[in-house]
Amino acid sequence: MTADAVNGTAPAHKPPAKPGPAGAALHWALVTLGPILAALLLSGAVLLALGTDPLAYYGLVLQRGLLSWLGLQETLSRMGPLLFLAAGLIVAFRAGIWNLGTDGQFLLAAVIVAAAGPPLADALPGWVALPLCLVLAALVGAAWSLLPALLRAYQGVNEIITTLMMTFLGTSFANVLVKLAFRDPATTVPQTRTLPVDDRLPRLFGSTISSGLLLGLLAVVLVHLMMTRTAFGLKLRVVGANARAAVHAGLPVPRLTIAVFALSAGLAAMAGAVDIIGTQGNVRADWNPAYGLAVIPLVFLARFNGFASIAFVFLFSVLSIGGESAARRLGVPHFFTLVVMAILLIVLALVEYADHRRRERMRA
Amino acid sequence: MIAAPPSDAGAPIVALHGITRRFPGVVANDRVDLAIRPGEVHVLLGENGAGKSTLIAMLSGLLQPDEGRILVDGREQPIASPRHALGFGIGTVFQHVMLAPTLTVVENLALGLPWWRRPDRARLAAEFTRTAEALGLSIDPHAVTGELSLGEQQQAEIVRALLRGSRVLILDEATSMLTPKGVEELGALMRRLAGRGIAVVFITHKLKEAFDFGDRISILRLGRKVGEIPPERLRALGEREATAEIVHLMFGSSESPLPSPSLSPPSPRGRGLGGGGSFGLTRPVLSQAGADGGFDPLPIRAQTRADPSPYPPPARGGGTMNDSVPAPILVVRDLSVPGHGAAAVADVALEVAPGEILGIAGIDGNGQKQLAEALAGQRPASGGTVLLDGRPIDRLDVGARRRLGLRYVTDDRLGEGTVGPFPVALNLLLKQIGEPPFWSRGLDRPDEIDRNARALVAAFDVRTPGIRTPVGRLSGGNIQKVLLARELSGAARVVIYSKPTYGLDAQNIVAARRRIRDAADAGIATILISTDLEELLELSDRIAVMSRGRIAGTVANDDRARQRVGELMIGAQS
Question: Rounded to an integer, what distance in angstroms lies between the CA atom of residue A255 and that of residue B566?
Answer without folding.
Answer: 45
